[in-house]
């Protein structure tokens, strides 16, 4: 009987330790999450303050929509919004149209020399690691020579060039999971390479294409450095608008917070709606077998 009680006590002790460990890990995770989320929370709260309230941060204040009214009444903002939407939608579509067949060709294409596919794929990977600041001077020189400064098409070319390797990198693993026998059977049935891509491969890697498109859209939406240095008032995007808003009008914390809240809101809503597809796309390509 004492042996049974001892076993029960040991079992309770193990369960107690497990609960304490889980509770401790939960507290640590929430603490880290709050720490990382605190700047966003500060920005969101400051957006509902007046400029006087925002200068002296406080958790207790009377919310007001006055700052949002000032920001949304600025007609210049909608021009920058139009430029951002153009770059996001057109840039994402072009990146997918170019990157998808490129990744397919690297996996199933026939090259004259063995190892060419791996070398091209490695080149795409090294391109992803290239920081924009390293090439800003030659880019600015070329933009001046071809009259692309402050032109939407010039910024679009750069966004496509910088993000096509990202699409190739993501879809490469997805295409590599497709059994070669499926395409060989389609080849025997008379399907061309284009038909194999559109009718067989693309439906099989649809999740990866969605995930790649979402990442490209987010990166283009948030990009600041290239747009700030290579555009003016006509083709600048929303991140540039916020930077100029702060420089031209001074340190208006409440208005800057309201503008930032308006800018990140579409990305947050879109990401929340499509988070399942994004997580599935980011994890599915890494599973082999």
Automatic annotation (TrEMBL):
<feature type="transmembrane region" description="Helical">
    <location>
        <begin position="155"/>
        <end position="176"/>
    </location>
</feature>
<feature type="transmembrane region" description="Helical">
    <location>
        <begin position="252"/>
        <end position="273"/>
    </location>
</feature>
<dbReference type="InterPro" id="IPR050901">
    <property type="entry name" value="BP-dep_ABC_trans_perm"/>
</dbReference>
<keyword id="KW-0812">Transmembrane</keyword>
<feature type="transmembrane region" description="Helical">
    <location>
        <begin position="85"/>
        <end position="108"/>
    </location>
</feature>
<dbReference type="GO" id="GO:0005886">
    <property type="term" value="C:plasma membrane"/>
</dbReference>
<feature type="domain" description="ABC transmembrane type-1">
    <location>
        <begin position="81"/>
        <end position="274"/>
    </location>
</feature>
<feature type="transmembrane region" description="Helical">
    <location>
        <begin position="22"/>
        <end position="45"/>
    </location>
</feature>
<dbReference type="GO" id="GO:0055085">
    <property type="term" value="P:transmembrane transport"/>
</dbReference>
<dbReference type="InterPro" id="IPR000515">
    <property type="entry name" value="MetI-like"/>
</dbReference>
<keyword id="KW-1003">Cell membrane</keyword>
<comment type="similarity">
    <text>Belongs to the binding-protein-dependent transport system permease family.</text>
</comment>
<dbReference type="InterPro" id="IPR035906">
    <property type="entry name" value="MetI-like_sf"/>
</dbReference>
<feature type="transmembrane region" description="Helical">
    <location>
        <begin position="197"/>
        <end position="221"/>
    </location>
</feature>
<dbReference type="Pfam" id="PF00528">
    <property type="entry name" value="BPD_transp_1"/>
</dbReference>
<keyword id="KW-0472">Membrane</keyword>
<feature type="transmembrane region" description="Helical">
    <location>
        <begin position="120"/>
        <end position="143"/>
    </location>
</feature>
<protein>
    <recommendedName>
        <fullName>ABC transmembrane type-1 domain-containing protein</fullName>
    </recommendedName>
</protein>
<keyword id="KW-0813">Transport</keyword>
<keyword id="KW-1133">Transmembrane helix</keyword>
């Amino acid at each position: 009987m004492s042996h049974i009680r001892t076993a029960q006590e040991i079992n309770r002790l193990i369960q107690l330790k497990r609960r304490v460990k889980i509770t401790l890990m939960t507290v640590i995770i929430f603490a880290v999450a709050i720490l990382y989320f605190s700047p966003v929370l500060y920005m969101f709260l400051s957006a509902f303050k007046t400029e006087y309230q925002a200068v002296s941060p406080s958790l207790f204040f009377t919310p007001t929509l006055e700052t949002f009214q000032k920001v949304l009444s600025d007609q210049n903002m909608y021009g920058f919004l139009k430029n951002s939407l153009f770059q996001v939608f057109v840039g994402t579509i072009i990146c997918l149209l170019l990157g998808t067949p490129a990744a397919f060709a690297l996996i199933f294409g026939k090259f004259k020399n063995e190892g060419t596919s791996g070398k091209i794929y490695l080149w795409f990977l090294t391109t992803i690691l290239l920081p924009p600041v390293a090439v800003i001077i030659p880019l600015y020189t070329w933009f001046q020579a071809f009259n692309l400064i402050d032109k939407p098409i010039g910024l679009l070319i750069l966004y496509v060039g910088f993000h096509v390797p990202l699409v190739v990198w993501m879809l490469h693993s997805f295409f590599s999971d497709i059994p070669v026998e499926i395409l060989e059977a389609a080849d025997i049935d008379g399907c061309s390479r284009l038909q194999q891509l559109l009718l067989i491969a693309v439906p099989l890697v649809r999740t990866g294409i969605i995930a790649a498109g979402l990442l490209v859209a987010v990166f283009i939406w948030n990009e600041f450095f290239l747009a700030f240095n290579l555009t003016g008032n006509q083709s600048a995007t929303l991140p540039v608008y916020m930077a100029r808003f702060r420089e031209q009008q001074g340190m208006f914390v409440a208005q800057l917070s309201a503008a930032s809240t308006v800018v990140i809101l579409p990305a947050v809503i879109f990401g929340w709606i499509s988070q399942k597809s994004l997580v599935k796309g980011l994890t599915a390509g890494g599973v082999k077998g």
